[in-house]
Design goal:
This protein is of the alpha/beta class. Helices cover about 45% and strands about 15% of the residues. Strands 2-1-3-4-5-11-10 form a 7-stranded mixed β-sheet, sandwiched between helices. Strand 6 (about 170-175), helix 6 (about 180-195) and strand 7 form a beta-alpha-beta unit. Helix 3 (about 80-95) runs parallel beside helix 4 and helix 7 packs across helix 8 (about 235-250). The radius of gyration is 21 Å and the shape is globular. The two termini are about 20 Å apart.
């Protein structure tokens, strides 16, 4: 984890130095051309806690640091692709010079990219890939690796607990069918689970990542499969929390291991309480800050080469930056999310979790 953190820090340091140079150099050498430039940030939904608690504030703070006169227009689609299209068109009308777009629907959002291109406005695909050949950049994490980390931890937990492949199986609560990342999480998870000998009892693609929909589905599976359910693969902490709520409501005890993703505060606390087995920590600050750096660079007429390229479904190669995800269990909360400053121990260790924090060495 320390190596990951250092790598991210070096990446950001290099980007920040580039930003310092860009602040004094714009196309044509006229600094006034980009003074007060407008950057649009469009996020996909309000059911995932990270967007309001991490992505937005980190992005806005970094833009302010790099370009004090720049203005950030912000909008959240609330899980509505048509609404996101309208928000993007509004930003274009308001004079946005760059759009940073985390699409609710990666296919539908291609229309936003086309509209922006018609106005010579570059688009950065943020966290989720948009299926368009006209993107300037894509920044995210190795999303198939996320699914592999989740499934690997889950299978190892079953083995450690002495659960044999013939004893039962796994429920898979996947992400939204309109989210390209969700398909990658699922592919990575299946790669591990399908080779493990443990069977998938049933799986569900959760519309809009909506926890109530995930909870309703898991409730139905408990009725059908009962004690055959030995583990739950949940694609993020929201769906993981929903699965746990369904299991508790059905009186399942002990709870089977349940995965998650995003290292949401509630997810970390559930891990401490023993309700959730693991989550995946993605260093959202480096992701948001790198996106801000790229946006400011584009405002200033600068282009960067990605660390790699990622193909859209249409086969286009997009200059990309992929950060490294990290599995988190009760054993490494302190050395990951706390050590990185993602949360303070005091954020996690409220009165209800103080004893569990002490036991886990979170301080």
């Amino acid at each position: 984890m320390r190596a990951v953190t250092v790598t991210a820090a070096l990446l950001l340091t290099a980007g920040t130095l580039a930003g310092c140079a860009n602040g004094s150099e714009t196309p044509g050498g006229d600094n006034g051309d980009t003074a007060g430039a407008t950057i649009g940030l469009l996020l996909p939904d309000s059911v995932t806690a990270r967007y309001e608690s991490a992505d937005r504030p980190y992005f806005e703070a970094k833009v302010k640091d790099l370009c004090p006169d720049c203005k950030v227009l912000y909008a959240n689609a609330d899980g509505d692709a048509a609404k996101q299209q309208q928000q993007a068109e509004s930003m274009i009308t308001q004079g946005a010079k760059v759009l940073v777009l985390d699409p609710f629907d990666g296919e539908a959002a291609a229309a936003i990219v086309a509209s922006a291109k018609a106005q010579s406005i570059p688009v950065i695909s943020y966290d989720r890939l948009i299926n368009s050949a006209d993107l300037s950049y894509y920044i995210s994490f190795d999303n198939e690796k996320v699914g592999e980390l989740q499934a690997t931890a889950l299978i190892q937990k079953l083995k450690d607990d002495g659960v044999q492949p013939g004893d039962g199986g796994i429920l898979m609560v996947n992400g939204s069918p309109t989210d390209n990342n969700a398909s990658q999480f699922k592919a990575g998870a299946h790669k591990v689970i399908d080779a493990s000998g443990y069977k998938v009892l049933a799986e569900f693609d959760t519309p809009g990542w909506d926890p109530p929909k995930a909870q309703d589905w898991v409730t139905g599976q408990i009725t059908q499969f009962g004690d055959q359910i030995k583990a739950v693969y949940a694609a993020n902490d929201g769906t993981g929390g929903a699965a746990i709520a369904a299991l508790k409501a059905a009186g399942v005890n002990p709870l089977p291991p349940v995965t998650g993703q995003d290292a949401e505060l509630a997810g970390i606390q559930r891990i401490l309480a023993g309700d959730q087995f693991m989550t995946v920590y993605k260093a959202l600050k480096p992701e948001a800050e790198r996106a801000a750096q790229l946006a400011v660079d584009l405002v200033n007429g600068k282009t960067d080469k990605g660390d790699t390229t990622v193909k859209t479904k249409g086969g286009a190669d997009i200059q990309s930056f992929l950060l490294v995800p990290v599995a988190v269990t009760v054993d490494n909360i302190e050395s990951t999310v706390v050590a990185d400053g993602f949360y303070k121990a005091s954020d996690i260790c409220t009165a209800d979790y103080a004893a569990a924090c002490e036991k886990a060495g979170v301080k």
